[in-house]
Specification:
By secondary structure, this protein is of the alpha+beta class. The chain folds into 2 domains: 118 residues, N-terminal domain of MutM-like DNA repair proteins (Alpha-Beta Barrel), CATH 3.20.190.10; 126 residues, Helicase, Ruva Protein, domain 3 (Orthogonal Bundle). It contains 7 helices and 12 strands. β11 and β12 form a beta hairpin.
Amino acid sequence: MPEGPQVARYARLQSEVLAGKRVRADSPNGRSEDVAAAIDGLKLLGIEAIGKHLLYDFGKERYLHVHLGRFGNFDAGAMPLPEVRGILRLRIYTSKRWFELRGAIAIDLYDAERRAALEARIGPNPLDPDADPMRAYAKIHKSRSSIGMLMMDQSIVGGIGNIYRSEVLFMNRVHPLRLGTSIDRKTWRAIWKDLVRVMEHGAIHGRIVTTDPKDREKPAGAVRRTDRFYVYHRDGLPCRRCGTLVATAELGTRKVFWCPHDQPAPDGASAPHVRKRSAKSPSGSAQTSRLPKTS
């Protein structure tokens, strides 16, 4: 699933090409034909990422709203338009560049009221320099849900997905089954600080990398696919810091990953089933933007 930094990157790269220009739009497979017709020929003022949502501002309180869901992504290229392939939900283009959207779960039109409602229901975003992390903490500290569940709730923190949840909890030695009520202010501020750091890196580079060089098998040079994460998709492999086998379990509808030694289980938490992998098994992957990378 595209996480907040990837969505923010889409907004930035597309704004660089489209903002201030009149754009053309169509929906080759017809599923978003009405939406495309409504924005075709309008001047695009800008694009904003709100959590995992994209808002394209066409002025006069008219917005194109896109939610990528688990499988949505953009392709991009120089004109002319390529031959239509696959389920192409929406295409936005100018005389020089095009962007194709596939797999999104929502493509619709918003007015000012719907935009305000979206902003109201999304929690503070670590990518927003003005975000107040204590807004999220106020909800976390009152909840007896697990911190692993709470961090995936977009009404509490905007833009976090499964990768950042698992990785940042590991960095702070917090077990994903710890109750929100057990998280103190100091711990939450440390979690937030790490979220800001790794999510900003992802937004800039278009690739999720959470490991420090000293914790990689190959510390120097380009980060290899197998060195990108501490625990995400590394179930059954040794922890990079202590050697304990990384564990995984279902939490909600997604798998969460942690180190049983570095993230001690809270009292009463059931032990997970740990699956073993070959030492040569890849450490898992994260979605990367299919737009041109800047690094």
